[in-house]
Amino acid sequence: MEYGKNIRGSFKGLIPFLVFVGLYLGSGLILQSRGVELAFYQFPAPVAVFAGIVVAFILFKGSIGEKFDTFVKGCGNQDIIIMCIIYLLAGAFAGVSKSMGGVDSTVNLGLTYIPAQYIAPGLFMIAAFIATATGTSVGSIVAVAPIAVGLADKGGLSLPLVLAAVMGGSMFGDNLSVISDTTIAATRTQGVEMRDKFKVNVFIAAPAAALTLLLLLVMGRPEVIPEVQSYDYTLIKVIPYIFVLGLSLVGINVFVVLTGGVLLSGVIGMAYGDFTLLGLCKEIYGGFTNMNEIFLLSLLTGGLAAMVTKAGGVQWLLEKIQKNVKGEKSAQIGIGALVALTDAAVANNTVAIIINGPIAKKMCEKYRVDPRRSAALLDIFSCVGQGMIPYGAQMLILLGFTQGAVSPLQLMPLLWYQQLLAIFAIISIFIPFADKLIREKPWEWALEEGE
């Protein structure tokens, strides 16, 4: 897909996307206000995005064939297909591991040795460590979320709060990891070294993470702390999770990790008589089908994003924000707003950075913004956006493990890390506390000033 090249901005290009978001969030909010159970799952999200696609076909110029070609290319975008395959494998791993008793054993092992009041902050740190080591928030969520759901249930903890801790830790690691797609995209588009971007980024992310951990320690305590006791568990059934976590930390490809996890869980399950070979096949397929809604939503959203982009919807956002940029500080605010809004439109933080990177580079040159700072802002605000939108891959996978028990509306107010990260990033624009380690000027500036 080509983004922002020879495309004229048009508000009309955003209308189909607004229809999708309006139907999805609007129906959920209305039903929630009426006390309907699982309000956000009553109106299927794939149907909401399909409505947006129909509107796009009606509104946008060109022949049906041209519009369909753009839509299909968006659906077939490499990032979308990779994400969809991850959904299927994650569903298979979760289904097989649960069926053979792996979830129960892992949860019981954790409850035996970890006090319930420390589970939420502990999950934040584990998710953060995995995401930092692997460079992927999705991989971290896939590895940690199933265990988190079980720990919340048996530990008497708030499930939305525990899930928010996993999401926050995953986005923290994704934002800071030097092997993350977002870090690579941000540094390459701004022409800076990863270590310099990290120096700015860590001064903004670390305080947000520290405050989040404090909040989780205080607010993550169960109403009634269960008595310390030993729970029944079979250690060998915990091995698939250790296997997945270990290979993730080493940096093995997520497809290899999840496929290996499925096979290992399957072998253990058959050895313990939890299912036969035919039963294993059925469990794998059941895991696939559990991810149907997420799979369809991501696929269709990719197609809609391509149509919206080609029709000038994203370009219109870019142009409107650039008109309000007047100086260095407003330029930095503009960079953050651009990438966050673009991420909301395309539901992919790496793509959002790629779209806005060249624009941010020009704004840096015009308004004398340090490119190392702009790289950090691009990564930070794209992660804030991706970690908050209810139709993003991270949110969809995370809530998919709850089987409809938690809605996006319940989770979003508890995403403290993302909220604090945005606050600290904005403060750093007006009070440059994050620039302590990059006092030297960019070489282009030094040349201009004859240094």
From TrEMBL:
Keywords: Antiport, Cell membrane, Membrane, Transmembrane, Transmembrane helix, Transport. Pfam families: Na_H_antiporter (PF03553). It is found in: Cell membrane. Residues 33-220, 239-427 form the Na+/H+ antiporter NhaC-like C-terminal domain. The chain crosses the membrane at residues 13-31, 38-60, 80-97, 118-151, 157-179, 200-220, 240-273, 294-313, 333-355, 376-402, 414-434. One of its GO terms (cellular component) is plasma membrane. It is a multi-pass membrane protein. GO terms for molecular function: antiporter activity. Belongs to the NhaC Na(+)/H(+) (TC 2.A.35) antiporter family. This is Sodium:proton antiporter. The lineage of its organism: Bacteria, Fusobacteriati, Fusobacteriota, Fusobacteriia, Fusobacteriales.
